[in-house]
Specification:
12 helices, alpha/beta, 5-stranded parallel beta sheet, single chain
Length: 368
């Protein structure tokens, strides 16, 4: 092992790093009773071979190793599972797995702290590189001009600092930034990914999250008429009389109203979350402050503006990744909250909403 936390050759038994990773993946499959499809198997092989070459500092006779691997494909194809298995097996001491939103928020907070210093992104990249040799991004995507500008420049700096990067995304690199208003500004980052990363389309053809039996459930969904939602939520969550009502809190220097708060549980209206100028940082704060969150008043989203839709999608992403238990209450059926073609990202959100357990509702004015 080198002084910077890298294990550059075979282990003590002479087993190559690539084979260590592949064996660990096979062990995880066996432990869970899973069988990998050909695309997942190929993905772990490519990750393992890239890591082996990257740790050794060589790719071939004339080529330096790629800076990372970019896995993309449809929702539920096993990208996160493959990356998590790879991350766990990678014999790198200084490694870090992060979600896209949380990482960008950390960078933004650090930028505020070092405001006024020359080339702050290069400084942040150097700080990351000093503690992280392998960085794994989950849900890599860009829909905000600020994120596009920040991520593009930071990615370049991280590559130059020698950080190995693995990213999963629902999009091929050319589709990462679909908004034509600022896609040109992100093009250098797209070209960097295409030039410096091994790109693999992990698409076995099946959304494994559609397999309901034995699947991951991270919350509940209830279809309740809007007029009955308040009464229903109070009964379903067994909200005690001692719970605080209409609580005003400050989130990232802005007022935020909670319909109710009790211990690690919060109840929030959809309007407060998505019809106000909220940022992903606000949703991250909620995910860290509360273990369970109930959201009422969720409308049929096709008729909402793109800003409202995007906030809802970001909210679902963040709560899902953080493990925040969600109770989503709407008048519409979970399958029709937003049509598949209404938003470029809704395929991922729809897949995550299908992992909410549908509650059988029994109260006046309720559906189901």
């Amino acid at each position: 092992m080198t002084s910077d936390g890298l294990r550059t050759g075979p282990d003590a038994d002479g087993e190559p790093v690539a084979r260590q990773v592949e064996k660990a993946f096979e062990a995880q499959l066996q432990a869970r009773g899973y069988q990998a499809d050909p695309a997942q198997t190929e993905a772990i092989v490519r990750l393992a071979r890239w890591l082996d070459a990257w740790l050794r500092g060589r790719w071939g006779w004339l080529r330096a190793p790629k800076s990372g691997v970019y896995l993309w494909g449809g929702v539920g194809r096993g990208k996160s599972f493959v990356m998590d298995a790879f991350f766990a097996a990678a014999p790198v001491a200084d490694k870090r797995r992060v979600h896209f939103h949380a990482f960008l928020q950390d960078v933004l907070e650090r930028l505020k702290e070092i405001s006024g210093r020359p080339d702050p992104l290069a400084l942040i990249a150097a700080e990351v590189a000093a503690n992280t040799r392998l960085l794994c991004f989950d849900e890599f995507h860009v829909h905000d001009i600020g994120d596009a500008m920040l991520l593009g420049r930071l990615l370049h700096q991280l590559v130059e600092q020698g950080v190995g990067i693995v990213a999963t995304s629902n999009y091929e690199p050319r589709a990462l930034c679909p908004n034509p208003l600022y896609r040109d500004r992100f093009m250098p980052a797209i070209e960097l990914i295409e030039r410096r990363f091994d790109i693999f389309n992990l698409d076995g053809g099946e959304d494994y999250r559609d397999r309901i039996e034995g699947g991951y459930v991270w919350g509940e969904f209830a279809q309740v008429a809007e007029a009955a939602q308040t009464e229903w939520v109070q009964r379903h969550t067994q909200l005690p009389a001692s719970a605080e009502r209409n609580v005003q809190v400050e989130v990232n220097h802005r007022p935020f109203c909670l319909a109710a708060r009790h211990l690690a549980n919060a109840w929030i209206a959809f309007d407060e979350l998505c019809r106000q100028p909220r940022a992903s940082a606000d949703f991250l704060w909620l995910s860290r402050a509360f273990e369970q969150v109930a959201i009422t008043g969720v409308p049929q989203l096709d008729g909402e503006g793109i800003d409202v839709q995007q906030r809802f999608l970001n909210l679902i992403d963040i709560f899902y990744d953080s493990g925040t238990a969600l109770l989503l209450v709407a008048e519409n059926d979970v399958k029709t909250l937003l049509s598949a073609g209404a938003h470029v990202d809704f395929a991922r959100t729809r897949s995550r909403l299908q992992q909410l357990r549908v509650v059988e509702v029994q109260c006046p004015g309720a559906h189901g």
